């Protein structure tokens, strides 16, 4: 079950962390994976690691916020390698490197756009680049990696991030219904706290938060990757327009 032989996947933001974990598990199930990252060296390193483990992977660097660059990169990849059957919209962040939580009242309006650019419009750009081909072939799997901040209110200074992630969730739901008769499914994962060590960062800021998670630990890239493998498979063809909480039980729905 959940085999992906003969399928090709594009995972955005897959040069490290959760994205790299998703790409690795998709490749382990037999998919050919296009590893995207804004930093070419990270994309190639992650793709090389997949190949070293016996999988098939290609580095595909581009900036998801650049509509033309996304379309050109996907078009070149599909012509030279294979059409994209599976898209995992993983690229996203708190708006920029070094982001610090800020209440909306204290946020600079000049900063609003950058949150939407990657967390919402980046999802739209990558989706648009693969959607026509999926419709033509009457098969497609789209998974958007969102956040619990997009499904619930939080008093931790992430309103702008949460608004963009919530927008991505809403977009994915509408996309699912628009293309339900085209053989395409589209779902979102509202991801909880992930161990920052997966991206080479210190875990000190989240250790205390982790104590409140019912299962007693932070999430891992493999936790998210496993959900993506299932949603990408034929076995999940009757699941679309849904938002799954992948969070160790905090909160439940």
Automatic annotation (TrEMBL):
This is SDR family oxidoreductase. It comes from Yinghuangia soli. Keywords: Oxidoreductase. InterPro entries: NAD(P)-bd_dom_sf (IPR036291), SDR (IPR050259), SDR_fam (IPR002347). Belongs to the short-chain dehydrogenases/reductases (SDR) family. GO terms for molecular function: oxidoreductase activity. PANTHER family: 3-OXOACYL-(ACYL-CARRIER-PROTEIN) REDUCTASE (PTHR42879), 3-OXOACYL-[ACYL-CARRIER-PROTEIN] REDUCTASE FABG (PTHR42879:SF2).
